[in-house]
Every structure is written in structure tokens, then in C-alpha cells.
Amino acid sequence: MMKRTVKKASPKEDLAAKGKKVKTFSRLRGMRDVLFDEYKYWEVVNKKASDLAKTYGFKRVDTPIIEKMELFERASGKASDIITKEIYSFVDKNGEKVALRAEATPGLVRAYVEHGMSNLPQPVKMFWIGPAFRNDKPQAGRYRQFTQYNLEMFGEAGPVADAQLILVAFNFFRELQVDVQVQINSVGCKDCRKDYLDKLVKYYKDKSRSPKLCLECKKNLTKNPMRLLECKEEKCVTMRAEAPQLVDSLCDPCRDHFVKVLEYLDELGVNYNLEPFLVRGLEYYSRTVFEIWSLDDGSEARQAALGGGGRYDELVEYMGGRPTPACGFGIGLERTILKIKENNIALKEEAQMDVFIAQLGEGPRRRSMVLFEELRRAGFKVGQLFSKDSLKIQLEEATRMSVKFSLILGQKELSDGTILIRDMESGVQEIIDLNKVRVEMGKRLGKE
Ligand code: AMP
User: Fold this and answer.
1) What is the per-residue pLDDT for 131?
2) What angle do CA 50, 53, 54 make, to 5 degrees?
């Protein structure tokens, strides 16, 4: 009797038959999937990031994505944009107020203190690559989950540390062929900043100026006057042009430090520009602050900075550690990849396959899978399409992979203990001993 197979309806078909619409899901706003074609870029960028960091003596660390909200409030400042507007925080099922990290530094400083790293030989140099989350308004190059490459150096007060970090950030882009310029400034220390703030507030409180400020700047004038320097409103930008500059108020040690950083950068051929109103929003910076701007972004560069960082000499102590000078930077990898794509920078081709294994029939397929493992362990890059039965389709795949040779195993060869080796260019096929494939491939590919 002939066996009849009855096709069972899928759950979707079942529901459709009952007239119900099946719900599909989409990503959250501002979140991205990285699919096959884009992944090539991630591999290149991640490798460059980690190779470069290691070359300069930085070692990789990872910290949890989620930490106590209090940690972030303490590090970034309760009044910062990150804390007031952007951080994803919630009360977890244990009643604890936690948050997804919006930047790497708070977690890295916590780790430095918690693991007693001040007892290690200083400086402690760490690098970190991972996702960060900010409830930003999504747009090109601005996402709610994005990836940062961070370098931090703890325990080195000298300008050599600032210069080395800036050099790594600059080299990262230069070697990925993205044209950038480092924007640099010094925000001084607590002492020199105090004098500066007095001058700044006086400048803005002038009757001819204060009424013309935007609402946000009016508020910041009493709360956090440095923020006025970063306002993007046109009228505030115009008014800023004549504002006193931080560099003119630096105390002698801060000025000396800044000059030395610039001298190093000159010597190392780093393309930089003095940006007198660059202060970077966070409260924890002292002395050097910098950002990396793309040279082809023109007036948009400030909003679309590729990276930024600076020195934060007070933060470790403020977070409960011993007084420890420190500095660091963060680079956005999505923005870096956008730049590479925009500039059509060619990536190196994928690693070339050495040989392809094609098989015909169940027995040959099993033996081919074992042969694949043998060759792979021997260091060959082997292509395959074990899910297909057709020799034509398999050889087309071999051609697409541009392999020099394909190995073809059919039922007859398997019984004889042989395998066919096909030169993909000439189409010439030879029979060889199945047990000698490894040696034979080694000879033909010059990998003995
Ligand atoms: P920040 O910590 O704000 O200085 O950011 C450092 C770098 O991270 C920026 O220069 C960007 O390249 C990247 N970045 C910051 N926020 C976002 C975001 N919402 N989406 C994508 N990249 C971001």
C-alpha cells in the first residue's frame, strides 16, 4: 500500500486559517541589527582597535552592561545630560535602582577601585569594546544602543599619557583611512577654573548679552556656566565668539602640562586644532579634553564627533579610591563604520579558501564531513556545501569561492578508497588515494 503523507499546517497557517493576523516584531527605535555585509566592517574595525591598543600596552577588560544607578550619578554628575535625559534606568525585581551603562568610564573606575588596582605597577592601561545605551533622539549616526572603543590609563599624571591616548585615537582613524582632526583644549584644574568661571559669568551677565541667551543657557548661567560654551543655538554660538577663553586663565602647572601635550603631538605628527570652547559636558574632566572630528563633516563635525575624551584626575578619589591621576577616551564604532562606508574605503578581501570538498550521496557526505575536519585541523581553509546534493551547485559555489582545487567524493571513489581532485581553472581531474589527500593538498598548495 502506498504511504500517503499529510502535510501538517504550520502554526502561522493555522492562525491564518482561523482569520487571525499573526503579529510580527520589529526592533526598538534607535537599535540596529548588524547583518552579514556590515559584519565585514565590524571585524576590521574591532581588529584594528584591539591590535592598536595592545601595541601600546593596553590590556582588554570587560565590565557589566548594567550597574547601580548611583555609580553613574556619582561619576557623571546628577545634573549632566547623561543622567537627566539619556540613561536607561529602572528598578529591578529586587527593588534595586540600576541602569544600562551610557559610557564606559564609570564602570572602569569602579573596577579599578574595587579590584585594588592601585596596588599594581602604575600606569594601569586598559581597553574596552562594548555596547552603551543612551535614550538619544535617533538619527543617522545617533542610536540608542551603540558601541564604544575605550582606552583608559590610570596612575600617570604626566602629559605623555594624554599624548599617547590622543596618538592611539588618531592612529586608529588614520590606519582605517578616515581623515580626522583632533580638537583639543584644556579645562584646567579646580583652582584655575574658579577664576575662569567668574570671568565667564561676568561676560554673560552683561546687560547686552544675558537677555539674548536661549532658555537653556539662561538656566545654565547659574547652574553650570561652562555648558554655555557648548550650546548649539545660533544666537548663543555668535555670542560665544568674544567670550573669555579657558587657556588664558590656566594656572602655571596646567599651562605647562597643556603645552607639553601639544609639543608631543607636534613631534608625533598628529593633526590637531586648538578649540578654545571645547569643554565636553561631563563634570569629571580636568586639564586636557579632546574630540576627534571628521575632516569631511565641515560644520556638522562638532555634532557628529567620532570620539572624545580627556583627563579626569579627581574622579578615582571621588569614586572612593586613592587619589589617582587618569585619562581616557571613547570612540563610537558605528560612526567610524559609517565614515568608512561613506568614503568607499575598500576592505581587505576575505581570507581565500584553499580547497572545496564536493560530495555525491549519503555515504560520501559523511566521509567528506570527516575529511573536512581533518583538513581544517591541518590548517587548510576548506569550503563546502554539505546541504546540497547536486554536483553542479557545489562546483558553482567552489568557483564563487575562487578555490584552486576541488575534491570530489562519489560512491565509487568511496568504495575504491580514492577521491577526485579537480583543477578548477583547467577542469582536469585526477584520481588520488583518499588517505593521501592531506599530503597531496599540502604539495599542490605549497603548504607542506
Ligand atoms: P561621548 O561619551 O558622548 O563623548 O561619546 C563618545 C563617542 O561615542 C562619540 O564621539 C560618538 O562617536 C559615540 N556616540 C555617543 N553617543 C552616541 C549615540 N547615541 N549613537 C552613536 N554613537 C554615539
Assistant:
1) 98
2) 85
Q: How many CA atoms lie within 13 A of 181 on its CB side?
A: 12
Question: Which residues of the chain fall short of a pLDDT of 70?
Answer: 1-12, 15-17, 282, 349-350, 448
Atom of ligand 1 nearest to the CA of 144: 19
Ligand 1, residues 139, 180, 334: which to mutate, most atoms within 8 A of Cβ?
334
Q: Indicate which residue's Cα is closest to atom 10 of ligand 1.
A: 307
Query: Using an 8 Å Cβ cutoff, are 128 and 104 in contact?
Result: yes
Pairing verdict, β 124-133 and 145-154: antiparallel
d(CA 420, CA 441) in angstroms, rounded, equals: 12
* Single-letter residue type at 361: G
| pLDDT, tens only, 236-261 | 988 999 999 999 999 999 999 999 99
Our answer on whether the CB atom of 216 is closer than 6 Å to any ligand 1 atom is no
Domains of the chain plus CATH, in order, are: 36-189+251-342 (3.30.930.10), 355-443 (3.40.50.800)
What separation in angstroms does the CA of 136 have from each of 142, 145, 244, 297, 302? 7, 9, 31, 21, 16
Rounded to 10 deg, the angle between the 105-114 and 69-76 helix axes is 110
Residues 257-291: tens digit of each pLDDT: 999 999 999 999 999 999 999 988 767 899 999 99
